[in-house]
Specification:
195 residues; mainly alpha; flat
Amino acid sequence: MRMLVTIADALIALARPVVFALIVLATVLCLLDWLVRTRRVNPFGALARFTRRVADPIITPMERRIVRAGGTPASAPWWTLVAVTLGGLALLALLGFLRDALVNMYYSLSNGPKGIVRLLVAWTFAVLQVAIIVRVITSWVGGTYSAVGRLAFKLTEWLLRPLRRLIPGFGGIDITPIVGWLVLRIVQSVVLRAL
């Protein structure tokens, strides 16, 4: 088990600079593409041709989504940068989560039946918290009716519906997922202390 944790730590240590480098590269490409799209750089020059050749295959899918949603094509580079950044941070969070899950599973299984119950309770709360995050992200990107979005809705609506009745929206922003996530964290800590 220690070897698995060591491998996971090495993988996380390797992934961090790679993700950082990808974010920096995406920032440069998106900035150049934005400069070309807004004609701050000659759109017929060598830099513009290079930018279109390198950046367009990456930015075009985001541009299609933005235009379908009523946005302007000039904002596509910035939304692409946001997607790359969030994707990289999500990858690092997932790797850290898997490493912690391995460690928790090892220690829980070594503590017998009580440890297994604690592990199952912790995993249940983790699934609910991830479902809330997935629900928020799918609502941002228009994936609410996808299979993942529907599953996240089913897993979390029992908690968020009563909170929505109690907590008013702030300027059209629904903060109940944040409150629901915090409620789950508090209840999880109380339940795990009781076990």
